[in-house]
């Protein structure tokens, strides 16, 4: 594949709009155009693959070279199609490029740029849905980007390291779910929560583990299982295929799983990442209950009636501590510290004696936790 020489300014800098005309050659006029959000999430999930194919950095020129270059297997075809989709959206590429620089562009797109763009597009979608609550989400109405160009479920790809070219993938049609169905025609895991899917993936971690990145699940290894082949080359079971397809259907979920305990993204999901993600996906009630269940673990002693913010930070490994914490106590503390609105709600709580709102003093007792739980569970008047 052609490598990009980034010492040539014309190749790595310039106007994103110059690629608009060329990109029209890649338009797939017979298919519904996927949303910017769908394309952005697909780029985020496959960023390392795209980056490698662009010569080490994601630039318009690199995408152009990639789109016009050869494809050696089914996955390459999938990546080329994604490059085509991106080149059809010069304004989206420009927005990504300037995501961290106040709109100023330099011709380079990082994974963090893509993540910030996804957050912005999701906010816009949420605002639109709040104005038109009866209107179907544009992202879901297009059945995800994969429904336009992902390999169908009977795609077979050789195990990692094999040099045997695979046939080009067959593309699924619009409106057709690109994954396994159950007897009633529904996706088997469509009604499962994100947390349930994360827990299932955690339980089957070794099946999805990427042998090229030991100890981690990558989007590429997930894509292989979705195509019916485990990363080790053996045939995937129908329930494994269904789980992989559902995870890929929910593009934003990979971003949640990818974020590690320090808040960084690396394109790989470890067992620890999944454990952390499972707690991030819990509701405010579930986190409050977990904090309540572990109350005495956070306090400094048996007579300490309050948990303060520093004690939570110590449990979350943000401050040094000699204390030992359970995984449950540690992860719940991290989530509560991230959810500032929930922390403030518990912090204020109510005064036990008067029932009036308490002081916002950076600490809470068991009564405040019980008050918050009871208030959340009380039926609406």
Annotation keywords:
381 residues; mainly alpha; globular; disordered N terminus
Blueprint (SSEs and pairs):
Elements: H1 9-12, H2 20-23, H3 36-45, H4 47-53, H5 60-68, H6 74-87, H7 90-97, H8 111-131, H9 138-141, H10 146-149, H11 194-203, H12 205-208, E1 217-218, H13 219-226, H14 238-249, H15 251-258, E2 268-269, H16 271-280, H17 284-293, H18 295-298, E3 307-308, H19 309-315, H20 327-338, H21 340-348, E4 363-364, H22 366-377
Helix pairs in contact: 3-8, 3-15, 5-6, 11-16, 13-14, 16-20, 17-20, 17-22, 19-20, 21-22
Structure description:
- The protein is 50% helix and 2% strand.
- The chain has 381 residues and is mainly alpha-helical.
- It has 3 domains: 1-151, no CATH class; 192-262, no CATH class; 282-377, no CATH class.
- The strands form 2 sheets. It has a two-stranded antiparallel ribbon. A two-stranded antiparallel ribbon has the order 3-4.
- Helix 13 (219-226) crosses helix 14, helix 17 packs across helix 20 (327-338) and helix 21 (340-348) crosses helix 22.
- The protein is globular and about 75 Å long.
- The termini are far apart.
- Residues 1-31 and 135-185 have low confidence and may be disordered.
Could you provide a short overview of the structure?
The protein has 381 residues and is mainly alpha-helical.
Mean pLDDT score, rounded?
75
- The helix count comes to 22
N- to C-terminal distance: 65 Å
The low-confidence parts are 1-31, 135-185
Tell me the domain tally.
3
